[in-house]
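Figure 6 in text form: structure in, sequence out.
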């Protein structure tokens, strides 16, 4: 966090990679995710007379060169930017504090944001904006010590649910905790504690990984809505496949600890294959499937980082294979980069609020 003399508060929240087990987090499963240092969103809170939420000059564009410009912009980026996310977290934060007897002073603020997370690419650009905003609110109202770390991902998710975005908790957990986290969302635990069972893991257990993405925004809410409904309807195939995806995180945790790279690679591939069977190629989109295939063609293991748009790749054969991958991505027109994992970022006040380690 940075605070200056005028009381301005700024927080960053990083993108995240759903490494194993996603999207079973949306379905009482398990995941392993980590905080991705390559991209982040930042939110700035400035004390002020009135309360205002400032639109981002690019992401919340409302002025256009022409009608065709407006139409093509909607075509590529959809109707929404980050303003609705900031408003939603303000509302959820306020209501949570009210319901839990947490007093909020009556000062006002201006809230603005920026982000370099490629838009709607399954790198959790949406919750990064919400997470950074929540951090600003915790500090502005000086209530960080009163809101447990484990509960914060719920608040971030609630803000998005409020907007009709179907999503799970894994992004938000990785963004609140930083580092590498194993998460179990089984119903029994969730019902008993109101949040998942989150275990921090050493980031050094991860092998070198690579990120591929393409400019093809996909809406996680839309991608998930049909499968979510089929799951709620009790469709056996979806339920058993999701259970298998959740098991991948469990087995992946052991594979990471044992440094069993062969196992890790096969789990990543299986994870994607199961997603493909459940969601179908139409929902996943050609470009996304091609990214996974480009990686597989050089013998690498790959899967989506989120609901689509970006792919995480593991090259078990090392740097020579990574070079082949880089060349293949260049030819296919995909962005390729080595992944930078962010270490955990909980401070002492945060850690004191936690009931688990
Ligand atoms: N880069 C961005 N800038 C502004 N708003 C964004 C950005 N990315 C996502 N959003 C907002 O979050 C919503 C949900 O995005 P989502 O499909 O979850 O993408 P992501 O995979 O990045 O989380 C979008 O409809 C939009 O309102
Ligand atoms: O489908 C997934 O793997 C994830 O989809 C969403 O993330 P996004 O970055 O918006 O694509 C969702 O929020 C996650 O909980 C899912 O695991
Ligand atoms: Mg999202």
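Output sequence:
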């Amino acid at each position: 966090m940075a605070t200056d003399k005028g009381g301005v508060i700024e927080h960053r929240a990083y993108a995240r990679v759903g490494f194993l087990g996603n999207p079973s987090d949306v379905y009482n499963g398990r995941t392993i995710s980590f905080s991705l240092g390559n991209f982040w969103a930042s939110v700035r809170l400035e004390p002020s007379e009135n309360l205002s939420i400032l639109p981002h000059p690019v992401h919340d564009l409302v002025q256009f060169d022409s009608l065709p410009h407006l139409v093509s912009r909607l075509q590529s980026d959809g109707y929404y930017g980050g303003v609705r996310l900031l408003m939603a977290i303000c509302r959820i934060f306020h209501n949570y504090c009210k319901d839990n007897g947490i007093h909020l002073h009556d000062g006002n603020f201006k809230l603005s944001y920026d982000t370099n997370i490629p838009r709607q690419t399954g790198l959790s650009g949406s919750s990064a904006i919400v997470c950074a905003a929540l951090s600003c609110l915790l500090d502005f109202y000086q209530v960080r010590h009163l809101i447990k770390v484990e509960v914060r991902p719920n608040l971030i998710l609630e803000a998005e649910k409020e907007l009709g975005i179907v999503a799970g908790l894994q992004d938000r957990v990785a963004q609140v905790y930083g580092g590498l986290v194993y998460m179990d969302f089984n119903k029994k635990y969730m019902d008993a504690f109101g949040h998942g069972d989150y275990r921090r893991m050493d980031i050094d257990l991860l092998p070198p990984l690579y990120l591929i993405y393409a400019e093809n925004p996909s809406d996680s809410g839309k991608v998930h809505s049909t499968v979510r409904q089929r799951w709620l309807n009790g469709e056996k195939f979806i339920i058993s496949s999701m259970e298998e995806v959740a098991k991948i995180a469990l087995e992946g945790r052991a594979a990471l600890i044992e440094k069993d790279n062969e196992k890790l690679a096969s789990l990543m591939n299986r994870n994607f294959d199961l997603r493909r069977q459940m969601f179908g190629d139409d929902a996943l989109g050609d470009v996304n499937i091609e990214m996974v295939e480009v990686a597989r063609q050089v013998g690498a293991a790959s899967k989506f980082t989120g609901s689509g748009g970006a792919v995480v790749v593991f090259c078990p054969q090392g740097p020579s294979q990574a070079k082949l991958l880089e060349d293949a991505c260049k030819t296919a027109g995909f962005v390729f980069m080595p992944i930078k994992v962010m270490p955990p970022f909980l401070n002492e006040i945060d850690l004191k609020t936690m009931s688990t380690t």
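Caption detail: Residues 236-258 form the longest helix (23 residues).
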